[in-house]
Design brief:
The chain has 367 residues and is an alpha/beta fold. It has helices at residues 5-8, 11-14, 25-32, 51-60, 73-83, 96-107, 123-130, 147-152, 176-185, 210-213, 244-253, 261-270, 274-297, 318-327, 351-366, and strands at 38-39, 90-93, 113-117, 134-138, 158-164, 191-195, 220-225, 238-241, 301-303, 309-313, 330-331, 333-334, 343-347. Helices cover 40% and strands 15% of the residues. The strands form three sheets. A seven-stranded mixed sheet has the order 2-8-7-6-5-3-4. Strands 9-10-13-12 form a four-stranded antiparallel sheet, with helices on one face. The radius of gyration is 21 Å and the shape is globular. Its cofactor is pyridoxal 5'-phosphate. Keywords: Amino-acid biosynthesis, Aminotransferase, Histidine biosynthesis, Pyridoxal phosphate, Transferase.
Length: 367
Amino acid sequence: MGCDFIARATPGVQGLQPYVPGKPAQELERELGLTDIIKLASNENPLGPSPVALAAAQQALAELHLYPDASGYRLKQALQQHYGLSPDCITLGNGSNDVLELIARAFLRPGDEVVYSQYAFLVYPIITQASSATAVVTEARDWGHDLDAMLAAVTERTRLVFIANPNNPTGTWLSRAQLCAFMDALPVSVVLVLDEAYTEYSEDPDFPDGLELLARYPNLVVTRTFSKAWGLAGLRVGFAAANREITDLLNRVRQPFNVSGPALAAAEAVLQDRAYLARTLETNRAGMRQLIDGLKRLGLAVIPSAGNFVCVGLGRPAGPVYQQLLERGVIVRPVANYQMPDHLRISIGLLAQNLRCLQVLEEVLSA
Ligand SMILES: *Cc1c(COP(=O)(O)O)cnc(C)c1O
């Protein structure tokens, strides 16, 4: 080709490993000719979309020839109603991964440091590396974040700290008291990105609401998504909430039409569908109990989770088990790329799906 394009890429991108998503059911169908596949690999809502959201998206299809509202006015109004957030504190994203990237783009220069924990969500290392910034990864404690270690890792070069609460893939979470003690000690010049992708699922009364903490901490950015409890992963909508100044910065780097018309309409509508959210949480509660009981009966170690998934230790390499589950039409998530080679992450599905997953897992483990 006459040119070494890899050498011309930025140093960050040269060393980048792309994110590996959960295996799509259609891909497994093509590869193995299987039908009746269940996918418990991407923490998607097993109920399917809310009928209210579906109707709103369908109605929005009539305007596919038009650019969407670049300001997302109506969705921001709905978010204000629902969460009490001022529209000028909201940045809309094409999924919350999009806003995570906007944050990196707005704040990170080569050589800046970013602190996050071992076993943290893989998007943080990717956007850190893509910005040619330096990752400072602290050791986990009981699979969760060690906030003392994270604080100790902060230097004058630290620009961002990433914390997912609850964390993916481990499901571990921080209490309000732990998080506030951390924020109280964090220099105000360091921005904490609190990724609350699974916050709706938490049932711990001491679980913090990041949106409530925004007034207290000017250096806090909270990210939320419509992909999980709200059941709109396929449409790609999420948002960041932060003070006006940070929000202004994020909107400077945001592409004007980053959220599609049907996505804006569906997200706005689904916020009104309380019954769907209630059904989602009830399904998750029952499924979580069922999966944890079943996994424990198999003698497996389950990490306590506040999300819509559980991470289970098999006490042996999980790769071959994952493969044998695939061959039997059950897709779960290997987490070896998180340095957890003996674990699998299983999303909570419908009762029949969880049951089949447990049965097939038992079959594979006892073979
Ligand atoms: C699923 C997930 C997200 C959400 O991604 P979207 O881009 O909003 O679909 C964000 N953070 C974590 C930790 C997640 O697991």
